[in-house]
Design brief:
The complex is a heterodimer of chains A (205) and B (218). Chain A is an alpha/beta fold. Chain A is built from 5 helices and 8 strands, in the order βββαββαααβαββ. In chain B, 82% of the residues lie in helices and 0% in strands. Classes of the chains: A alpha/beta (205), B mainly alpha (218).
């Protein structure tokens, strides 16, 4: 269980944005992605998660172990907190464990409809989804948006103790310091040249 | 798959889910037709099979754009795409859920509405059977159309233009079977052809739908 990325090139809307990205993550390791807006953090994470094809290079991790999480949480506002989590657990063939609700401080909110939660509470619910699906390789895009300091620490604790502690891997794009003991990958050097080959034809076709 | 079906059905019956909208639309169209056509009961009973089928088709169309649009807005779609559930299964479940919330209520309500249009006595059974066979095809074809237009804002009109032509064979054989039943002829040919269309649609379109979703997720 490890993640290998070699010479990866990614494109957004047919334009290459990053090229030659290489890194490795061993079990229990996290990697922080840094870079200015528009550098391609989200595109890179979506490509890693298999939501869009890579221009070049390879991504290797065990099949059916990756999970993607972005600003959009996939939360249905007409369902309650537990119904939302139980759905994702069931889709992934698991069950909703109570300790997940405790880890993300959702115990008091469990029967509330997700539509009545605040932005930060919704975000916590979206992150709690990561706890119920049992996936080992997480690709997280700005996981801490709209969380307060306490919740950020709670999430970082969960990531460190529960996820990474059990041999998980996380690739995280974030602008704030999560307090994780993890290497940082600065993406600016990998910015694709404007006339980089490949992908550019797609815009014309 | 069962989890997704249960969730979609739960969402449909809760506030803002749109359950019953198609049925109410169907009801109103059928009630309006006699007002427009006038009270000649022979004329009404002659056009009843066609009217019932066209109205069912439009009612099924009404809720198609919700099939994937809501999941796309809240980000569920990429999460489903990275889940162990294959997108083909997602497509099939979405089609089935749409049929249960739209096609099935339409089918069950149709005989009562046939009465309003003075449908011939012999045609009720055929109306029920053709709708039962035909409406699943409407839902599955519509799911495919919804997948094609999922990323578009206000894609509803385009969706209708894409999907309505594909509904023609189901409409022709459905209305024809009811008409033959009303006239006391054998409707077996039309029923078999309609059944064939439905089976073909369910065999192929989940794959086409999944392919369309993959392209739109990029």
């Amino acid at each position: 269980m490890s993640l290998h990325v070699k010479d990866l090139g990614v494109a957004r809307g047919g334009r290459p944005v990053l090229e030659g990205v290489s890194f490795d993550c061993a079990p229990g390791e996290a990697l922080i992605l840094r870079g200015p807006n528009g550098i391609g953090k989200t595109t890179l994470l979506r490509t890693l998660a298999g939501l869009q094809p890579a221009l070049a290079g390879e991504v290797a991790f065990p099949e059916d172990s990756g999970a993607y999480a972005s600003h959009a949480d996939g939360i249905k506002s007409q369902l309650s907190v537990t119904e939302n989590l139980a759905f994702w657990a069931e889709v992934h063939g698991g069950q909703l464990a109570d300790n997940v609700l405790e880890d993300f401080d959702l115990v008091d909110l469990r029967d509330r409809l997700a539509g009545t939660l605040s932005a930060g509470q919704k975000r916590r619910l979206g992150l709690a989804r990561l706890g119920v699906i049992g996936r080992k390789v997480l690709f997280l895009d700005e996981p801490t948006v709209s969380l307060d300091g306490f919740s950020v620490k709670m999430f970082a604790d969960w990531l460190r103790d529960t996820h990474l502690g059990q041999g998980g891997i996380a690739v995280i794009a974030t602008h704030i310091d999560l307090g994780l003991d993890a290497p940082v990958l600065e993406l600016t050097p990998y910015k694709a040249a404007q006339d980089a080959a490949g992908g550019s034809d797609e815009a014309f076709l | 798959m069962i989890a997704l079906l249960k969730r979609d059905l739960a969402l449909a019956v809760r506030a803002g889910g749109g359950f019953g909208l198609g049925l109410a639309f169907f009801l109103i169209v059928i009630v309006l037709v006699p007002f427009g056509v006038g009270p000649q009961s022979e004329l009404l009973s002659r056009i009843a099979p066609g009217i019932l089928w066209v109205a069912a088709l439009l009612a099924a169309l009404l809720s198609l754009d919700r099939i994937f649009a809501l999941d796309h807005e809240d980000g569920s779609l990429p999460l489903l795409a990275t889940s162990p559930l294959p997108l083909e299964a997602v497509a099939l479940v979405k089609g089935v859920a749409h049929w249960i919330t739209t096609g099935l209520p339409l089918t069950l309500a149709a005989p009562a509405l046939g009465f309003l249009l003075n449908l011939e006595t012999g045609a009720y059974a055929f109306l029920l059977i053709t709708l039962l066979i035909g409406t699943p095809a409407l839902s599955m074809i519509g799911t495919f159309g919804a997948a094609l237009t999922v990323g578009l804002r206000r894609g509803g009109l385009l969706l209708s233009l894409l999907v309505l032509p594909l509904y023609i064979p189901t409409l022709i054989f459905g209305a024809e079977a009811v008409r033959r039943g009303a006239d006391g002829f054998s409707a077996a040919n039309a029923l078999v052809l309609q059944g064939g269309i439905t089976l073909g649609v369910f065999a192929f379109l989940p794959f086409a739908t999944a392919a369309a979703l993959r392209v739109n997720l990029r």
